[in-house]
Design a protein that fits this description.
alpha/beta, Rossmann fold, 6-stranded mixed beta sheet, 5-stranded parallel beta sheet, 13 strands, 16% strand, globular
Length: 444
């Protein structure tokens, strides 16, 4: 544990594994305490006005606390901290008065809960870490696919391993990355076995959200947006009339922000620049990213298509695989509020859109998720043409149902560039494959 640490708040949706991560870490620490702010007796400790030292002593006396296994600093885990705003205020004093105590907190819907209590975050006195659903690499490890994981981690990904990895990636898209779903799948459960669990989780999310919505119209809009979010995910949205409703943009915007605070969606705005710095255009139509592709597929009944499609780009008009790629790109990020970027051409009569753009070594790299011939990548060509004035050797990525290869191409406008073709399964390994290309390992 770092000596210069501050209290750490883990952020993420319910059931995404925040508590499990800390419990795994606690098992390695000789002195650890755990309080759950959804338990009245635990939350009451923070309302008694105790000093930091007395507060920790009172926690140690709670029933069920583990017996210390040796000397060393105490790790204090405060779970469901959003249920007790006073616990959030206590983080400041624990940090200042007990620097030897390591504090980790976890919470969902934290902004909404604090807004109701009119309490602000202890700025500068805490750190944040985002917890995402299980990534494809973690899925391989959790399901015992060690040989596939070893091949996945090779750069470039070997041709012989691509069919097996693509099939495993299809299974990850089907099951998703919610930890309990992954654990059940590893034990042999299939999509039909998991269906009641997915439904229960979506219902629990909806019921959680409406507790923080104002009574009346907003509660109805929140319920509608929660139901419509899986259907609208993976595409650009219009706030007014979202999900086929008659609700106004202001009402939908407020409801979707509540879903975003709960980490159930990300509202992703496009960039128009082809080089850094790139600022998302908040006045343009955003794209919606849902919490988890497996959960989205369950909500929309897409499991059959995912299982049988010749190419994952054929499922849900290509939106499912694009959404899965967005989830994998997010899985590389540990900062709260990170969102996938996408690019649009800022000309009213010349529309173009690139699925994703990622920063890499001071430049932006275009990423398209496409099946079929390279000549159909016209939006990517327009991005490269605009980028050529600022980049000596433009490079772009295509994710598809094939093996790793590097092609020397020219855009329709005549710009020479390198197109790295990668299997869908390698979405999270784009930076590593770019480095291999740069080092001459992909035939560049």
């Amino acid at each position: 544990m770092r000596e210069d640490r501050k209290p750490l708040i883990l952020r993420g949706a319910r059931q995404v594994g925040k508590t499990t991560v800390v419990e795994m870490f606690r098992a390695e620490v000789p002195r650890a305490l755990h309080v759950d702010c959804e338990r009245p007796g635990h939350a009451a400790l923070f309302r008694r006005g105790l000093s930091a030292a007395d507060l920790v002593q009172a926690m140690a006396l709670l029933p069920g606390q583990p017996t210390p296994r040796g000397d060393g600093p105490t790790l204090l885990f405060i779970d469901e901290i959003q249920a007790c705003p006073e616990a959030l205020l206590a983080l400041r004093f624990l940090y200042e008065d007990l620097p030897a105590c390591r504090v980790v907190a976890a919470g969902s819907l934290l902004e909404a809960a604090l807004g109701q209590a009119q309490i602000s975050m202890p700025v500068g006195r805490v750190e944040y870490l985002a917890i995402h659903p299980v990534t494809f690499a973690e899925f391989l490890e959790a399901t015992g696919a060690r040989d596939a994981l070893a091949a996945y981690l090779q750069t470039p990904c070997p041709d012989f391993a691509v069919p097996a990895l693509q099939q495993a990636f299809r299974r990850w898209c089907l099951i998703g990355g919610m930890p309990e779903a992954v654990a059940r799948a590893a034990a042999g459960a299939g999509p039909a076995d998991l269906a009641p669990w997915y439904d229960h989780l979506l219902t629990a999310y909806r019921d959680d959200l409406v507790k923080y919505a104002r009574r009346g119209l907003l509660e109805q809009v929140v319920r509608h947006c929660m139901a419509a979010a899986p259907l609208e995910a993976g595409q650009r949205i219009t706030l007014a009339g979202f999900g086929g409703s008659s609700y106004r943009a202001r009402e939908v915007g407020e409801a979707l922000r509540l879903l975003e605070q709960a980490h159930l969606v990300r509202i992703c705005y496009p960039v128009t620049a082809t080089q850094l710095p790139a600022t998302p255009g908040l006045h343009k139509h955003p794209r919606l990213q849902f919490l988890d592709t497996g959960l989205m597929n369950a909500a929309l009944g897409l499991q059959g298509q995912v299982l049988t499609a010749d190419d994952l780009a054929d499922v849900h008009q290509g939106r499912m695989i694009e959404h899965a790629v967005g989830q994998e790109l997010l899985g590389r990020e540990d900062t709260v509020g990170a969102k996938p970027w996408f690019w649009i051409r800022d000309k009213p009569q010349a529309q173009a859109e690139v699925d994703f753009v990622i920063p890499w070594q001071g430049r932006l790299v275009a990423v398209e998720v496409k099946k079929g011939a390279q000549g159909r990548l016209r939006s990517l060509h327009q991005f490269v043409d605009q980028q050529a004035a600022h980049t000596s050797t433009p490079v772009a990525i295509r994710l598809y149902n094939g093996v790793v290869r590097a092609d020397h191409l020219k855009t329709v406008g005549g710009t020479a560039f390198i197109l790295l073709n990668l299997p869908y399964a390698c979405a999270a390994r784009i930076p590593e494959h770019l480095e291999a290309w740069q080092a001459g390992g992909l035939g560049a």
